[in-house]
């Protein structure tokens, strides 16, 4: 059959139409993605350094924003901390718990997730740790044996200058029990240790933590991001990282007390003033929390400098005659 001009034109139109349809099949996903953007966002919130008031405020604010931002569908809590103040650790604990009720939350630890930092992250849906993570756990608080009270004419009541030593010990034990109870509430079904073993406040390597249930999986931040996105049902997603500003010593955010006051832990400075605190810090990381330029009244009630704190506990006890614990 002879193909005339009109037939050729029709054939060309059909060919163009077929090519257009084929191109549409290939390009449609790209156009869809470009028009609609990601299905949602995974927020990575950093928890690093010593846990003090600014740290708690930062993490609380980021998690609050995540809960009220419709585009954020899940959170990764990126932890790198040896602990800090018990009260501020509990605040982060509560914020993580509230957030995990609204969306997937996974905590990750590359190196340190101990003491108050561990308490902060236990409400997460899962905890991922690097195989070589150095410190996971340390469930408890640290403090010194309190000094006896002495009469003071300036005190309006017998306990105004400080707690009786027995009361101070009891308070420390209450804090420790609250810590253990919180861990058991969140991870009692996963941890394969009994309450007494948990209370010993041991720290574990990453692989050990997965074996005993202190953590769930070996993994890193990218693994957690991908798993959070999967839990949230996101095929495509954006990632927002919220990093903390560098902070100074823990002591910079603490109140200054009278040099004659009594506390579970007392830090003496060159100006003669004492700063009082009970710490939820793994003992191995006290120097990071309070710095090298301060002296801490140790568990034995003796004063230990930064250099002495780095020495083995047995050597310190033999020098001072105190309790090495």
Structure description:
The protein is built from eleven helices and 15 strands. The protein has 325 residues and is an alpha/beta fold. Strands 1, 2, 4, 5, 6, 7, 8 and 9 form an eight-stranded mixed sheet that branches. The model is unreliable at 1-5, 13-35, 255-276, 297-305 and 312-325 (pLDDT under 50). The radius of gyration is 28 Å and the shape is globular.
- Report the mean per-residue pLDDT as an integer: 74
Helical percentage: 40-55%
Task: Please describe the biggest sheet, giving its number of strands, its sense, and whether it closes into a barrel.
Answer: 8 strands, mixed
Globally, the shape reads: globular
Number of separate strands = 15
Q: What structural category do the secondary elements indicate?
A: alpha/beta
Q: Report how far the terminal alpha carbons are from each other.
A: 103 Å
What is the beta-strand fraction? 15-25%
Order of helices and strands: HEHEEHEHEEHHEHEHEEEEEHEEHH
Labels describing this entry:
41% helix; 325 residues; single chain; alpha/beta; 11 helices; disordered C terminus
């Amino acid at each position: 059959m002879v193909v005339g001009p009109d037939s050729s034109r029709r054939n060309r139109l059909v060919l163009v139409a077929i090519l257009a349809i084929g191109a549409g099949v290939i390009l449609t996903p790209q156009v869809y993605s470009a028009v609609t953007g990601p299905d949602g966002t995974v927020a990575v919130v950093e928890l690093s350094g010593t846990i003090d008031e600014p740290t708690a405020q930062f993490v609380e604010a980021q998690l609050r924003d995540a809960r009220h931002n419709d585009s954020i569908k899940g959170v990764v809590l990126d932890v790198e901390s040896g602990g800090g103040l018990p009260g501020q650790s509990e605040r982060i604990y509560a914020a993580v718990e509230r957030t995990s009720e609204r969306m997937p939350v996974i905590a990750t630890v590359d190196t340190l997730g101990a003491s108050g930092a561990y308490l902060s992250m236990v409400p997460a849906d899962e905890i991922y740790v690097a195989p070589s993570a150095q410190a996971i756990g340390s469930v408890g608080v640290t403090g010194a044996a309190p000094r006896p009270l002495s009469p003071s004419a300036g005190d309006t009541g017998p306990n105004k200058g400080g707690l009786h030593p027995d009361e101070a010990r009891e308070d420390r034990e209450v804090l420790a029990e609250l810590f253990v109870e919180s861990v058991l509430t969140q991870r009692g079904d996963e941890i394969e240790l009994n309450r007494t073993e948990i209370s010993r406040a041991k720290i574990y390597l990453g692989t050990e933590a997965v074996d005993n249930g202190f953590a769930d999986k070996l993994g890193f931040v990218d693994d957690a991001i991908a798993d959070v996105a999967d839990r949230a049902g996101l095929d495509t997603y954006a990632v927002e990282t919220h990093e903390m500003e560098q902070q100074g010593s823990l002591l910079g955010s603490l109140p200054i007390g009278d040099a004659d006051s009594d506390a579970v832990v007392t830090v003496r400075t060159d100006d003669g003033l004492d700063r009082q605190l009970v710490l939820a810090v793994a003992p191995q990381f006290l120097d990071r929390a309070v710095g090298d330029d301060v002296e801490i009244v140790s568990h034995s009630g003796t004063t230990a400098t930064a250099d002495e704190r780095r020495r083995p506990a047995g050597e310190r006890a033999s020098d001072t005659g105190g309790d090495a614990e």
